[in-house]
Amino acid sequence: MTVEEYHAFARTACESISAERAIDVQAWECFKSLLHYVQMDATDGGEKWRELKNQFDNDLPITILYLAVSPSLYVPIVERLGEAGVNTSKSRLVLEKPIGTDLSSARAINDGVADHFDEEQIYRIDHYLGKETVQNLMVLRFANGLLEPSWSRSSIDNVQITVAEKLGVEGRASYYDGSGALRDMVQNHLLQLLCLTAMEPPASLNDKDVRTEKIKVLQSLRRLDKDSATRFTVRGQYNEGIIDGSAVRSYIEELPQTESNTETFVALKVEIDNWRWAGVPFYLRTGKRMGSQRSEIVITFKPVPHSIFEGGEAVEVNRLVLRLQPDEAVRLYIQIKEPGPGGLRIKSLPLNLSYAENFSVRYPDAYERLLMDVIRGNLSLFMRRDEVEAAWSWVDDIISAWDELDTPPALYSAGTDGPVSAAMLLDRDGKEWWIS
Length: 436
Ligand code: BG6
Hints:
By secondary structure, the protein is an alpha/beta fold. The protein has helices at 3-17, 25-32, 47-55, 74-83, 103-114, 132-142, 173-177, 180-198, 207-220, 226-232, 355-358, 366-376, 385-405, 420-427; strands at residues 63-67, 91-96, 122-125, 156-164, 233-239, 241-243, 246-248, 265-270, 282-287, 294-301, 319-325, 329-337, 346-354, 410-413.
């Protein structure tokens, strides 16, 4: 791009996120004067790095280096930044997920970056941690004394975490086909949601305390081998189908090649071997081209020990649903007497705390929040090196088991809830995926 093209690109991006308000021309001109653009080969040394360095205003208290590039470029770029002397004590380095494609590549990236930056200068982004509703999980758990006594194996039957997308691979086929849903979504976003749901109360909200509790959860995940992977994991790939009334192509048709074993859907049964969660299954699923766009955590409580109604007929269980997106909400399903004569009819209805109904303010996008945290120097919503590596270590076992098994992913029609085997995963335990 030329500098002008880059400015036009930035302006279009600003306009797209401030749809309800026209851009203030004066403010834009002021902002534009701060935007510079240097075109260069990121892996090559040379003059251009000095030109880039000269763009930095040395009087400012911090310098943020944000690498939104392929992870294979992290180390080469960081080495060049080191050579150019841009890694000063006031630099902060932001890295996008994925950090590598397995444990060994993640370690190589972490080592290479550590040669030039201290761990406290590195902000590894998992944008799920910046979502309002994900942060609300901590408030919900740790600002409501009511929940804590029930937040364990003594009251909870199972936990379901779903991140369902209607989107396909959208022009990212070459990245996605080398990655698949396990690496793209489970290793980071879903495991982070699981950690926040399952962790012990941290001593404080500072980054060290929060990240230390999360890593304990990762270390307690029961590891899977070939045999358990057959029973507790499901891989799927979307076939053609219908989404919102329109026909969509199969995954294979979106690729340049004619075959692929990459999974676009994963469902897992995960056990956490610690005192709080022993015996409580955590069911995780995520997929592309599913029937609905929905991320939610569903906590299903145990049934009442004995029903006194209608000759002991079973009553519905309580459920706490955290709807992360869209229609952000917290819903607690309780049983209530349906009004009217004719005996006690019991109905399950939600106490519904909808964000839209309760807060009329615009809340920040996950990236707005996280970038602001980088500026403030708050690391608690970013992943520490050992966290990323612990997550890869657990996921690597699944990848090895799948490699050994060498079974193709089960096909599912686009616009559905994934392959039938995902329903069977729960059916074997006498449970079902719960849809709000
Ligand atoms: C990204 C994945 O990290 O998260 C994408 O690489 C996925 O494949 C996206 O679509 C989902 O994020 P969100 O915020 O839309 O749920």
